[in-house]
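dumping the sequnces here before i forget
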Amino acid sequence: MKNRITIKDVAKEAGVSTATVSNVINNIEKASNRTRQRVLDAIEALNYQPDLSARSLVKRKSSLIGIMLPSFETQEQVAPTRLLANPFYNMFLTGAEYEARRQGYEILLTGCRDEKAVVDITHQRNLDGIVYLGMYPKKVYAYMKQLKIPVALIDTYDEVEFFHNICIDDEEGGYLATKYLVEHGHEKIGILGGDIRVLGVMQRRFEGYKRALKEAGVPYREEWTFEVDITCEGGYGSVRDVLSARRDMTAIFAVADIIAIGLLKGLREHRISVPKDLSIIGFDDLEACEHIYPPLTTVKQDIFKKGKKAVEKVIEEINQGYMNHKVKTILPIEIIERESVQNIKNKK
Amino acid sequence: MKNRITIKDVAKEAGVSTATVSNVINNIEKASNRTRQRVLDAIEALNYQPDLSARSLVKRKSSLIGIMLPSFETQEQVAPTRLLANPFYNMFLTGAEYEARRQGYEILLTGCRDEKAVVDITHQRNLDGIVYLGMYPKKVYAYMKQLKIPVALIDTYDEVEFFHNICIDDEEGGYLATKYLVEHGHEKIGILGGDIRVLGVMQRRFEGYKRALKEAGVPYREEWTFEVDITCEGGYGSVRDVLSARRDMTAIFAVADIIAIGLLKGLREHRISVPKDLSIIGFDDLEACEHIYPPLTTVKQDIFKKGKKAVEKVIEEINQGYMNHKVKTILPIEIIERESVQNIKNKK
DNA sequence: TTGTAGGCGTTATCAA
DNA sequence: TTGATAACGCCTACAA
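..and the predicted 3d for all of it:
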């Protein structure tokens, strides 16, 4: 079999003990400069690579950050394919991997079959920290708390005090989007969203929408609130309802780009011209926004940064030790102006 | 500190030796059914989780499959953000993670700074197998060969005999796309691609294009060959060239959806109507194809399956031992008919 | 069928 | 400043 170059080989080559080699490797200032250099040379000469399994065994640390994707069995059976299908995850992972590597960690990517799986994997692999992607049923939090390692959640409004939480101000986002419409002369504004009434991201955006309406002195209209799945198909499928309730509605705030994209497709098929007949504003700023027609005006959040920040917070706690007072990290948002909203201010 | 439940604890609880516990865990048929059950009960009672670092140390196997993303320093400095930006990777990872987990492995996701980094990480982490995503400079292959573990490459035409290679028949794909256009009455067909003359995926698609033209008795026209970056911007930027060379060209084969999408956007801005004024066919079948306007007719490859298959081949070799005769895995492709190609057969 | 003991590569404690 | 040596948790001859 191939024999691994170990710390012993290095020690022999350098004519020192393994303890000294270990000290040098770990930047523990004990060796004299001369020995240190000898060790370094030996490492170089032998092309020594430390065995992280061994290190992990004794240190109980793996230099591994777990990224957990939601993939419970029921979901999985329906569509394992969709695990990462959300374009959101793409950028998130990019940011997370970037930051992890920058700080000498690697990413372990895994879906979790059930709520217990994460705890198990964490123990088994001695993970140093965890980032949870996606939404989880309440009882999963109990398991997360068993983990004696830093945990970061994304976009959650639950149990916030126990975990790192990387999010944006969704209420403000909903407000900004709606206000943008108002500023462009719209008053008859509908909202297209999902799970808009259960506590969470979408509900906050909905609150922001209502705040902006109120501020503009426009009454909220139940019949212009459309609830659908947060998917392309959801948006696409909503067209019938939207059109039949429309009457003099001039604009819609879609709480996620992905449903806006579906809606746009549906509207096109019904020969409703955007933004001439109906203005649309989205939320997220997916890459696709730029390439669809019309290019979608939207509330941008920096998803790359979200991934980067999540890993950053986790590593921060790894380094500093347990933080019993975790404070949300709120990332900025901004309106990206494209062509899906018409200015009707003068037309009134 | 928290004390880990070890194999010793289980042994004590079950009143057996650690060797017996180990045998039971690893499904080595030695223990009697009675002892086996006692051990299983103890494991259950204590909620024992094996320490994979320790196991990895002794077995020199980690149950970890590495997925390498291209991210060499030059690229990274320009745009670390784009590491995973390609929507292709999304689906690929989903498939890879799915298969890995199904077989009891986990995914280690990492970009590699330089060609040596992979070798180092592989050694350090005792990775059991590697999947390379993206394209690499030739000299990287030399490093890959040092790895004494199964390696899968995606879509490569280099050094194929040394690695697993998961690909499609790109020549056939180019042929099918072009033939589809021919069958719809087109003869004046351009091609939009990148790196079309260097050996590789794009070049093969180009070959297929030429074969279909030849078969149709249509001469190949240099001036209708457009080379651009394989990005949205590339496609978008090509519009000027395309339009000025166009004359009586009726269709274009874009060798990747991503450039087709950019092209579509550019054409729209020039008020060229697709497919009425110009037909477009793409390649890949990105999710976006369905949601843009017009929905893009394209050559579909199953990217989820590509990821799944790559991991499958790697694990196969892990289980069966070194294969000195690796044979390409060629995944099927098919035309997905949407609305970006006009049938002009009758108009002639 | 079961148990004992040595070793995997590293770190860390203590002496020297 | 350096070096022996005992863990870390697991596997696997080899012995019983």
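Chain B has a mean pLDDT of 90.
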